[in-house]
TrEMBL record, chain A:
The lineage of its organism: Bacteria, Pseudomonadati, Thermodesulfobacteriota, Desulfovibrionia, Desulfovibrionales. Residues 4-472 form the Biotin carboxylation domain. Keywords: ATP-binding, Biotin, Ligase, Nucleotide-binding. It catalyses: N(6)-biotinyl-L-lysyl-[protein] + hydrogencarbonate + ATP = N(6)-carboxybiotinyl-L-lysyl-[protein] + ADP + phosphate + H(+). One of its GO terms (molecular function) is biotin carboxylase activity. It comes from Solidesulfovibrio magneticus str. Maddingley MBC34. This protein is a component of the acetyl coenzyme A carboxylase complex; first, biotin carboxylase catalyzes the carboxylation of the carrier protein and then the transcarboxylase transfers the carboxyl group to form malonyl-CoA. Coiled coil: none annotated. This is biotin carboxylase. PANTHER family: BIOTIN CARBOXYLASE, CHLOROPLASTIC (PTHR48095:SF2), PYRUVATE CARBOXYLASE SUBUNIT A (PTHR48095).
From TrEMBL, chain B:
One of its GO terms (cellular component) is acetyl-CoA carboxylase complex. Acetyl-CoA carboxylase is a heterotetramer composed of biotin carboxyl carrier protein (AccB), biotin carboxylase (AccC) and two subunits of ACCase subunit beta/alpha. It catalyses: N(6)-carboxybiotinyl-L-lysyl-[protein] + acetyl-CoA = N(6)-biotinyl-L-lysyl-[protein] + malonyl-CoA. Its main location: cytoplasm. Component of the acetyl coenzyme A carboxylase (ACC) complex. Biotin carboxylase (BC) catalyzes the carboxylation of biotin on its carrier protein (BCCP) and then the CO(2) group is transferred by the transcarboxylase to acetyl-CoA to form malonyl-CoA. Residues 491-748 form the CoA carboxyltransferase N-terminal domain. It comes from Solidesulfovibrio magneticus str. Maddingley MBC34. It comes from the Bacteria. It is an enzyme of class 2 (transferase). Gene3D superfamilies: 2-enoyl-CoA Hydratase, Chain A, domain 1 (3.90.226.10). In the N-terminal section; belongs to the AccD/PCCB family. In the C-terminal section; belongs to the AccA family. Keywords: ATP-binding, Cytoplasm, Fatty acid biosynthesis, Fatty acid metabolism, Lipid biosynthesis, Lipid metabolism, Nucleotide-binding, Transferase. This is Acetyl-coenzyme A carboxylase carboxyl transferase subunits beta/alpha. Its EC number is 2.1.3.15.
Length: 472, 748
C-alpha cells in the first residue's frame, strides 16, 4: 500500500456502497459514505456507522449533486472518491472535476479522458475499427448526405444477402439520439428514403443534429462481456474472464449473469465457442492497451448465432456483475478474489503485482439479481415493505444486499428496486445450475405494499431461466 | 380695457422669460419685474393718458431687453424654450405657412397617435397669371401647446409607422415631403412593432425615398427625431436643439444616478452645454444645412413674420432640391443658389421629377450623409497609406465590376448552355446502352468488396480514430476558475450547479439542463464561429475620438482602449465560415458598453463598402451595444441615418446583411442600421429593445416585466427572425449563408 493513508468517499448507495466499504476495510483504508433521507434504513448506512463510527456517514440531499459530494469529501478530508456504478460512475465531467479541482482527489475509475473517449459509442466503434476489431456492420460516423446514406444502406442489404441472412434488416438511427428515440428498421431499400428523411427531420428537430447512423440489425444474439482490470500505468492490463448476460428483462435489463461466457466443455455450440472467447478477450485487451486503460472496465460484445462477435460498447466502471467473474477467478491459484478491492488498490496507484498468466479460472459462477418486480407484467417494479428476508447460508453462495435481515425494510421509490445479488459457484455447469435452483428454492422474501397486496419478486423467473443458461 | 390687455400681455411675456431662464438670477429680468411692479403701484393715481404712456415705455423696454436677453441664452435655455407650451407647434405652421391643408391619419385625440401629425398641404404659387397649387406631404410631431393627449410629441411606434406610410404615399404621388421635428424623443415602448424596430424601418425606407424631403428641426430628440428627420435639406430653428440625448439623461449617466434620485440642475445645464446641442453648434459641425433665425427668445404663435420667413425658406429649399437634380434648369439654379432675402415665390420651379432625377436624388442623399462626421474620429494611418487604401478600393471596384457584372453574366450563360448539352448527351448514351445493362435477376447477390469494406472498416481514417467533437477552439478565461455556478433556472427547472470549467468551457456558457445562456466574451464567437486562422482584421487604425472635447471623456476612452487593447468599439474583419468568405463587424460591450460613435460608424460603412465591392455576405455581430455614444452627441447620432444609408446601398447591390445579437442590444444602433436588416437573429442570451428598463421607467412611468426585452419577446414582436443556441451559431450561420441572400453574392 502507498505510504499515504487514503480515505475513500463512497459516492453511492445500496449493495455497491456496502461492497466498497468492506473492500476499504479489508485494504486498511479509511472511508466516508453518504446517504439520503430516503436511504436512512439502508444497510450501507448501518454498516458505515458500525465500521466507521458516527463521522463516517454524511447525509446529502442527492447522490447526484456533485457540489454536495465534494463538500463532504473536503469536510471529511477524503483523498479519493469511488463512484460505484450508476450516478457519477461514467460521467467524465465529474471525474475531471474531481481530479482537476484545486483540492484534487483520486477518482477511483479510469481517468477522465478515457471515460470521455470510450463513453462515446461512435468513438468506441471507430477506435475498434482502427484496430481491426469487429463491430456491427454499418456507418461509423454520423452521415449527413442523403446519397451517401442510401449507398450505405444499399450495400448493407447486399452485404447481408451475401452472408446468407434471410431477412435483412437495416437500422436507421439518429446519431445524437439514444434510449430508443429516433430509431427505425427498414426491410427493403425502397423504404429507405422515406425513413431516412423521417429520422433526419426528427433528429434535426429533436437534437439539432441531422446526422444519422446506419447499421445492420442483428437478431437472436448473445450478450457477452469481458472484465478488464488495469493499473494506473496503463500497461499492466489483465482480463478476468468473460460473462454471459443474455438473460435480460423486456427493458433490456440484465437478470442473470454467468461466468464464463460459454461452456464448450459441457454444451455443444454451432461455432467454435472456445476460440470466440479467446478472440473477444484478445480484442478487448488490445483495445484497452491502445487507449492506455487504467482501471476496471467491461467490454460488451454481442455474438451472432453464427458465432461472429461484434463490439458494442465499453463500460468504464465497475459493474454490478463483477462478483460473478471474481467467483471463478484465481490469482496465483488463490481464490477469494475481490475485483472491487482490486479496483481501489489499483486506482490509488499500486502496481498490478501479477500478470495474465497468474489469473486462472475454475468452475462456473451464476449471479441472480433478486428484484422486487413482476416478470409476468413487463417487469413492473414493486414497491412496498419487506417483512421477511431469509437467505440460506451455504459455502458456495454469496449474497450481497443492503436489505437488513433483522428488520422490516421499506423499499425507497427514488431508486431502482434491486434487492440482492446472489452469487452461486459450482465446479461445473451442472453443479452450478443445481446449486442455483436449490438456493433460489430456499430464498424467502415476503412483504406487502400499501394496499396489503403481497410482495412480488422475480425469484421464480430466475429459477425458470436457470434451466437454459449458456445455451445458444 | 385696451391698457389692461396690454398689461396682461406684458405679464405673460415676463412669466415666459422667467420660465425659459429657469429661475436663474438676471438683472434684466429683475428690472422688467421691477418696472411692472412699479406700474401696478402707480397706475391707480395716473390718468389714462399717462397710463398709456407708461405702458408704451415698458413695452419698449421689454422689446429692448428681450433682444438683450436673447444674447444671454445658454444651451439649457434653448431646451426650455422648445419645451415651453407657448412654443409654436406644427399646427401653427400648417395654418400659417401653407395655404390649405387636410389632416390625415386622424385628428386631435381621434388619431392612431395624436403626437404624429400628417397633412396634405398646398403651397399656392403664381406663374405669370397662372395659379399653381403645389402639394406637399407635411409630416411632423405635434406638441399641441401642452395638450395632454399629444404626449409631448413623443411618438409611439405606430405613430412612426403612420408617418412612414404617408411618406410612401407621397412617394407614390411624387410630391415632396416637409417634415417638422418637434420631439423630445420616441416613446420607448416595445409593441407590435417596437420603437426601435419602427424607427429602423423608417430610416431604411427614407434612405430610398424617391421624392425630396426637407426637414426643419425645432426639438430634435435623438431617435424620435431621426425617425422622420432623414432628409435632403436639413434646417434648424435657431432656438431649437438637436441632441443625442436629453441633457437630463446625459447628466443622469454622468453622475451615475440611480432610479429615484435627482440630478443637480447645474450638472444638467453643464451637460446641455457639453453636448453641443444648439443650432449654431450643429451648423458648425455640418449636421444641418441652415439655421432659420427666430425672433428673440424663440418663436411663439403670434410671430407672424417668422411664419412668412419659414414659408419662403421651405419653398426655396424645396426648389433647390428639385433644381439640383432636374434635367432642365438653366438660370433658375443659378438664381436659386444666389438668391438672398429676395422673394423665392417670384420664380417658379415645378415640383416633379422623373426616374433619372429620382435616382440622382437618392444618390445625392447617400453622398450627403456619407460626408458627415468624417472628421469626428481619428484616423491613425499615415497619409500615404490612406491614399494607397483609397487607390486599392478603386481598383477593387473596377475588378468587381469586370468580375461579377461583366464577366459573371457571360460565364453563367455559358455554364447553363454546357449543362443543358451534357444532359442531352447523357440521355442519348443511357438509351443506347440500355440493352447492355439488363441483368439476370436470379444471379447470387455479390457485395462489392470495396463497398463492404466501408461497412466494417474505419471510414475516413485520415480523421483519426476518435472524432474530435469535444472542446472549443477559444476557451473563456472564466473556465479556469474552480467554482460552481448556480443557474438562474435552478428554482424553476431544477438545474444542477455547474462547474465553471464545464460551463464556460465545454458548454459554451449554456446550462445543459434549461438552456440558460450565461454571458460570454465576444472573443468566444470570434474564436469558435469563424474558421480557424481565417480572421483578418482591418481598419484597426480608425480610432474613437472625443470630437466635442467632452470633459473627462478622454480618460475614459483611454481606459477603454487600454482594457480592450483596441482603438474603437467595433472590429471589422474578413473571415470564413466553413470556407465561405464574409465580411463581419463586431460591436462589443467591453469598449464603452459597445456604444457607437463616429469611429464605429465609419468602420461599419467601410466594411459594408468592402462587402459590396467584393460581393461578400455581411454579418453584423452585436455582442451588446448600449446605444449611441452620448459624449459625441450629434457626431454619434448621425451614424444612425448615415450607416443605415450605407446598409441600404449594400442590400440594394444584392448583398446579404445578417445581424446577430448577443447580450444586451439597445437604442440607436438597434433603431437604425441593425434593426433595418431583414435577417436579424439573436442568441438566447440577448435582450433587444429601444430603451433599457430604467429609461422606460423614467420616461413613461411604467414598470416593465423583467423579460420585456428578451429575445423570445423580440421574436414575438417580429423584430428578429430567429433565436439561436450559442453552441449552434456556426451551424446556423452556415445555413443562413447557404439558404438566404441574393444572386449577387460571390459564391452564388
Amino acid at each position: 500500500m502507498s505510504t499515504k493513508k487514503h480515505k475513500v468517499l463512497v459516492a453511492n448507495r445500496g449493495e455497491i456502497a456496502i461492497r466498497i466499504i468492506q473492500a476499504c476495510v479489508s485494504l486498511g483504508l479509511d472511508f466516508v459514505c453518504v446517504y439520503t433521507r430516503a436511504d436512512e434504513g439502508s444497510g450501507h448506512l448501518a454498516l458505515a456507522r458500525q465500521l466507521g463510527g458516527p463521522e463516517a456517514a454524511y447525509r446529502v440531499s442527492s447522490y447526484h449533486d456533485a457540489n454536495e459530494l465534494l463538500a463532504v469529501a473536503d469536510h471529511a478530508g477524503a483523498t479519493a472518491i469511488h463512484p460505484g456504478y450508476g450516478f457519477f460512475a461514467e460521467d467524465f465531467r465529474f471525474a475531471r472535476r474531481v481530479a482537476e479541482r484545486k483540492r484534487g482527489l483520486i477518482f477511483i475509475g479510469p481517468s477522465w479522458r478515457i471515460i470521455r473517449t470510450l463513453g462515446d459509442k461512435i468513438n468506441t466503434k471507430r477506435l475498434a475499427r482502427s484496430l481491426s476489431i469487429p463491430t456491427v456492420p454499418g456507418s461509423d460516423r454520423p452521415v449527413y448526405d442523403e446519397m451517401e446514406a442510401e449507398e450505405i444502406a444499399e450495400t448493407l442489404f447486399a452485404f447481408q444477402a451475401e452472408q446468407g441472412i434471410a431477412n435483412s434488416v437495416v437500422l436507421v438511427k439518429a446519431s445524437a439520439g439514444g434510449g430508443g428515440m429516433g430509431i427505425e428498421e427498414i426491410y427493403d431499400i425502397e423504404q429507405f428514403k422515406t425513413v431516412y428523411r423521417r429520422i433526419r427531420n426528427y433528429a434535426k428537430r429533436q437534437f439539432h443534429d441531422e446526422g444519422v447512423l446506419i447499421e445492420q440489425r442483428i437478431f437472436d444474439f448473445n450478450h457477452l462481456e469481458v472484465q478488464i482490470v488495469a493499473d494506473r500505468t496503463g500497461t499492466g492490463i489483465v482480463h478476468f474472464g468473460t460473462r454471459n448476460c443474455t438473460i435480460q428483462s423486456t427493458g433490456r435489463q440484465k437478470r442473470v449473469e454467468i461466468a464464463p461466457g460459454f461452456r464448450p466443455e459441457e454444451i455443444a455450440y454451432a461455432f467454435d465457442a472456445a476460440k470466440l472467447l479467446d478472440d473477444i478477450t484478445g480484442y478487448s485487451l488490445a483495445m484497452a492497451r491502445e487507449v492506455g486503460y487504467d482501471n476496471v472496465g467491461t467490454w460488451e460484445w454481442i455474438v451472432s448465432p453464427t458465432g461472429q462477435p461484434f463490439l458494442m460498447e465499453v463500460n468504464t466502471r465497475i459493474q454490478v456483475e463483477n462478483g460473478v467473474s471474481a467467483a471463478i477467478s484465481r490469482i496465483k491459484g488463490k481464490g477469494d478474489v475481490n475485483i472491487i478491492a482490486e479496483q481501489i488498490r489499483l486506482g490509488l496507484g499500486e502496481p498490478m503485482g501479477y500478470d495474465q498468466s497468474d489469473v486462472t479460472f475454475e468452475g462456473v459462477g451464476i449471479e441472480y439479481r433478486v428484484i422486487a418486480e413482476d416478470p409476468a407484467n413487463r417487469f413492473t417494479p414493486w414497491v412496498g415493505r419487506i417483512d421477511q428476508f431469509l437467505a440460506p447460508n451455504l459455502p458456495y453462495a454469496r449474497l450481497h444486499t443492503h436489505i437488513p435481515m433483522d428488520a422490516p425494510y421499506e423499499i425507497p421509490t427514488e431508486y431502482d428496486p434491486n434487492l440482492a445479488l446472489a452469487i452461486i459457484w459450482g465446479k461445473d455447469l451442472a453443479e452450478a445450475k443445481k446449486r442455483g435452483t436449490d438456493y433460489l428454492d430456499e430464498l424467502t422474501l415476503s412483504g406487502a405494499d400499501g394496499t396489503g397486496a403481497e410482495m412480488k419478486t422475480n425469484i421464480r423467473y430466475l429459477r425458470e431461466k436457470t434451466a437454459t443458461i449458456l445455451q445458444f | 380695457m385696451e391698457i389692461e390687455k396690454r398689461v396682461v400681455d406684458l405679464t405673460d411675456r415676463l412669466s415666459y422669460i422667467k420660465d425659459i431662464f429657469g429661475g436663474r438670477e438676471n438683472a434684466n429680468v429683475a428690472l422688467m419685474q421691477a418696472r411692472l411692479d412699479e406700474f401696478a403701484v402707480r397706475e391707480r393715481e395716473a390718468s389714462p393718458g399717462e397710463r398709456a404712456q407708461m405702458v408704451r415705455q415698458i413695452e419698449d423696454l421689454f422689446d429692448f431687453l428681450e433682444k438683450k436677453l436673447d444674447d444671454e441664452l445658454v444651451p439649457m435655455d434653448m431646451v426650455r424654450i422648445v419645451r415651453h407650451p407657448a412654443r409654436i407647434s406644427l399646427k401653427d405652421i400648417l395654418e400659417n405657412v401653407y395655404d390649405n391643408y387636410t389632416e390625415i391619419g386622424g385628428q386631435d385625440e381621434y388619431s392612431i397617435d395624436p403626437s404624429m401629425l400628417i397633412a396634405r398641404a398646398y403651397i399656392t404659387r403664381r406663374q405669370g397669371d397662372k395659379v399653381v397649387n403645389q402639394p406637399v406631404m407635411v409630416i411632423g410631431q405635434e406638441k399641441g401647446h401642452g395638450q395632454e393627449f399629444r404626449n409631448g410629441g413623443s411618438v409611439k411606434p405606430w405613430g412612426n409607422a403612420k408617418a412612414l406610410q404617408y411618406m410612401k404615399v407621397a412617394e407614390t404621388e411624387r410630391i415632396p415631403i416637409h417634415s417638422y421635428v418637434f420631439t423630445p424623443g420616441a416613446f420607448p415602448v416595445e409593441d407590435y412593432p417596437g420603437a426601435a424596430q419602427q424607427i429602423a424601418r423608417n430610416l431604411y425606407e427614407m434612405g430610398g425615398l424617391r421624392v425630396p424631403v426637407v426637414s426643419v428641426i425645432s426639438e430634435g430628440g435623438s431617435g424620435g427625431a431621426e425617425a422622420i428627420g432623414l432628409s435632403d435639406v436639413r434646417m434648424m430653428l435657431s432656438r431649437g436643439y438637436y441632441s443625442v440625448i436629453s441633457p437630463e439623461g446625459a447628466a443622469a449617466i454622468e453622475a451615475g444616478i440611480r432610479q429615484g434620485q435627482r440630478v443637480a440642475p447645474e450638472l444638467i445645464a453643464e451637460c446641455a452645454k457639453r453636448l453641443n446641442i444648439t443650432a449654431a453648434d450643429n451648423l458648425r459641425m455640418g449636421y444641418i444645412d441652415k439655421v432659420l433665425e427666430e425672433p428673440a427668445l424663440g418663436t411663439r404663435p403670434h410671430h407672424y413674420d417668422f411664419f412668412k420667413t419659414l414659408r419662403q425658406e421651405m419653398i426655396q429649399a424645396t426648389d433647390q432640391v428639385f433644381l439640383g437634380i432636374a434635367g432642365f434648369k438653366l438660370f433658375r439654379a443659378l438664381v436659386a443658389s444666389r438668391r438672398k432675402g429676395g422673394d423665392p415665390e417670384s420664380m417658379f420651379v415645378r415640383w416633379t421629377l422623373d426616374e433619372d432625377a429620382a435616382d440622382r436624388l437618392v444618390w445625392k442623399r447617400y453622398c450627403k450623409y456619407r460626408r458627415m462626421a468624417e472628421t469626428a474620429f481619428r484616423d491613425g494611418r499615415p497619409s500615404g497609406e490612406r491614399i494607397a487604401s483609397r487607390a486599392k478600393s478603386l481598383v477593387w471596384s473596377g475588378y468587381s465590376f469586370i468580375r461579377y457584372d461583366f464577366l459573371g453574366k457571360h460565364t453563367k450563360t455559358l455554364a447553363k448552355a454546357a449543362s443543358d448539352l451534357e444532359a442531352e448527351l447523357r440521355l442519348v448514351a443511357h438509351k443506347l446502352t440500355a440493352p447492355l445493362r439488363r441483368q439476370d435477376k436470379n444471379a447470387p447477390v455479390v457485395c462489392d468488396p470495396e463497398k463492404s469494406r466501408m461497412l466494417t472498416e474505419l471510414s475516413q481514417p485520415e480523421q483519426g480514430a476518435c472524432l474530435e467533437e469535444f472542446g472549443w477552439r477559444y476557451v473563456s478565461p472564466k473556465a479556469a476558475e474552480d467554482r460552481a455556478v448556480t443557474c438562474p433556472g435552478a428554482k424553476t427547472y431544477g438545474c444542477p450547479d455547474l462547474w465553471a470549467p464545464d460551463l464556460y468551457g465545454d458548454f459554451a456558457g449554456v446550462c445543459v439542463n434549461c438552456g440558460h445562456h450565461f454571458p460570454m466574451e465576444y472573443e468566444w464567437v470570434l474564436g469558435n464561429v469563424f474558421d480557424a486562422e481565417s480572421i483578418v482584421e482591418y481598419d484597426n487604425d480608425i480610432e474613437a475620438g472625443n470630437p466635442l472635447d467632452y470633459p473627462g471623456f478622454e480618460d475614459k476612452l483611454d481606459a477603454a482602449k487600454k482594457k480592450t487593447g483596441r482603438k474603437s468599439g467595433c472590429v471589422s474583419l474578413d473571415a470564413k465560415i466553413d470556407g465561405i468568405k464574409l465580411v463581419s463587424t463586431v460591436l462589443y460591450s467591453a469598449f464603452r458598453g459597445g456604444s457607437v460613435g463616429a469611429a464605429e460608424g465609419e468602420k461599419f460603412i467601410r466594411a459594408l463598402a468592402r462587402a459590396r465591392r467584393k460581393h461578400y455576405p455581411f454579418l453584423a455581430y452585436v455582442h451588446g451595444t448600449a446605444g449611441i455614444r452620448i459624449q459625441e452627441s450629434l457626431n454619434g447620432l448621425i451614424q444612425m441615418p448615415r450607416v443605415t444609408l450605407a446598409v441600404r446601398r449594400y442590400i440594394e447591390a444584392g448583398g446579404l446583411y445578417v445581424v446577430l445579437y448577443d447580450t444586451n442590444s439597445y437604442a440607436g444602433p438597434v433603431a437604425s442600421f441593425l434593426g433595418c436588416s431583414p435577417y436579424q437573429f439573436a442568441v438566447r442570451s440577448a435582450n433587444i429593445g429601444f430603451a433599457g428598463p430604467g429609461v422606460i421607467k423614467e420616461t413613461t412611468g411604467v414598470d416593465i416585466p423583467p423579460d420585456y426585452h428578451q429575445a423570445h419577446n423580440a421574436l414575438a414582436r417580429g423584430h428578429i427572425q430567429g433565436i439561436w443556441d450559442r453552441r449552434e451559431i456556426r451551424k446556423n450561420l452556415k445555413q443562413v449563408l447557404l439558404t438566404i441572400g441574393g444572386r449577387n453574392l460571390y459564391y452564388r
